[in-house]
Amino acid sequence: MDSEAQRIRTLGILGAGKLGTVLARLAASAGYRVLVATSKDPALIAPAMRAIGAEAASIDTAIEEADAVILALPLGRHRELPVEMLRDVLVIDAMNYWWAADGIRHDLSDPRISTSELVQSFLTGSRVVKALSHMGYQDLEDETRPAGASGRKAIAIAGDDAADLEAASVLVDDLGFDPVIAGPLAAGIMLEPGAEAFGADINAAQLREMLEHFPASQRGIIVARARGETRN
Ligand SMILES: NC(=O)c1ccc[n+]([C@@H]2O[C@H](COP(=O)([O-])OP(=O)(O)OC[C@H]3O[C@@H](n4cnc5c(N)ncnc54)[C@H](OP(=O)(O)O)[C@@H]3O)[C@@H](O)[C@H]2O)c1
């Protein structure tokens, strides 16, 4: 696949908290133009974004001018996202259901469906890929390494479209991690809280092995039962 054709050059990030700020810093260091937005006035984050080589923007600008948009806001607030503006946009969903931030939400913790599928069903016209969601922000900050460096860690990606997976893989690689394809968007459930890969700060071979082991894991068994899948 021609990765130049897929390359993201301007990255929008919705959310300027712990995750959004680290991703903005890594992307800016990797040479991306980075536009970061929150639900509030961009002026509030402008100095902090300037200091890390990114730009504060309105949500409209961060979407309109970007080649791809990372969702780094609380999952419980995803219904605030502008569905029409995100139509046809590559949306990289880094969100997780986290009860401490989102409250108790049974709709966001149903083991039959991954949260990225929920996001995709809300953002009907967007191309949603799950990535950059399973590693804690401090590890993301500390573990970035150039391609080929020994000890490089891996980030899993789930999505339904080969070209979008490729674009997300190039981004993950540029941010300093080995991309590992977990499978279609539904496979994103293997990266969510409760799964072994959630919080994983390991290399690509270890992450692949962990994902292969998912069906036999405690969470994998819960998911399979909820989905009415039987194992031989
Ligand atoms: N923290 C981590 O280590 C980590 C790692 C992987 C994934 N994640 C996931 O990433 C997401 C963000 O986590 P976090 O720890 O960075 O949270 P956080 O520190 O609370 O930051 C959340 C950010 O989202 C913004 N926001 C809220 N509603 C928004 C909206 N409608 N549009 C645009 N921006 C909005 C907030 O700003 P305003 O309220 O001012 O709009 C804030 O800047 C969560 O889904 C989390 O599960 C976190």
Any chance you could write out the topology, listing elements then pairs?
Elements: H1 3-6, E1 10-14, H2 18-29, E2 33-37, H3 46-51, E3 55-56, H4 59-64, E4 68-71, E5 90-93, H5 99-102, H6 115-122, E6 127-131, H7 137-143, E7 154-159, H8 162-175, E8 178-183, H9 204-212, H10 218-226
Parallel strand pairs: 1-2, 1-4, 2-3, 4-5, 5-6, 7-8
Antiparallel strand pairs: 6-7
Helix pairs in contact: 2-7
Describe, in plain words, how this protein is organized in 3D.
It is a single chain. The protein has 232 residues and is α/β, with parallel strands linked by helices. The protein has a domain at 74-226: Rossmann fold (3-Layer(aba) Sandwich), CATH 3.40.50. The chain is 34% helix and 16% strand. The protein contains ten helices and eight strands. Strands 3-2-1-4-5-6-7-8 form an eight-stranded mixed β-sheet, sandwiched between helices. The longest helix is centred in the last third of the chain and has 14 residues, at 162-175. The mean pLDDT is 96. The protein binds NADP nicotinamide-adenine-dinucleotide phosphate.
How far the N terminus sits from the C terminus, by CA atoms, comes to 36 Å
Name the average pLDDT: 96
* Class of secondary structure makeup: alpha/beta
Kindly provide the radius of gyration, computed on alpha-carbon positions and rounded to a whole number of angstroms.
17 Å
- Helix share, percent: 25-40%
Main beta sheet: strand number and arrangement?
8 strands, mixed
> What is the count of β-strands?
8
Which compounds are bound in this model?
Answer: NADP nicotinamide-adenine-dinucleotide phosphate
Beta-strand fraction estimate: 15-25%
The top level CATH class name of one domain: Alpha Beta
CATH architecture of one domain: 3-Layer(aba) Sandwich
